[in-house]
Design a protein that fits this description.
The chain is mainly α. The chain has one domain: Orthogonal Bundle (Globin-like), CATH 1.10.490.10. Helices cover 78% and strands 0% of the residues. The protein is built from seven helices and no strands. α2 crosses α3 and α2 packs across α4. The radius of gyration is 17 Å and the shape is globular. The relative contact order is 0.12.
Length: 139
Amino acid sequence: MSTVIRYAENNPAKDAGRAAALGRRAEIRTFVVDFYSAIRQHETLGPIFNTAVEDWDAHFETLTDFWMTVLLGVPSYKGNPFEAHQQVSGIQDSHFDSWLIVFKESANRSLNEDLAAIAIEKASRIADSLRSGLFFRTR
């Protein structure tokens, strides 16, 4: 059993995967900062996000973890997006359309073409899920 553990700890393929993920993390973080910088300046969304987020640097880290998990399958995010959004005052159904427009612009500007396409598809699904959960639940 210790041989297996040593192999896992000294696995060059696993180490290469970690190194690649770290490189991608910088790319994802650049996207997250770009996207939320645009959101913070947005006429409608800015006031909501700027009120809800107290520490943007910490939020960038959390969201980088989230998108690393969603886009690359790196299990770094430990949270509940639905619960987090339930706590935000002022969110309206129509805000998700604006959020997606800004997201698409930022993804296309900050990520390579393939990753941007994946991110946009995933963001659309996430927005639909959050929208359904927040505004269209049966009681």
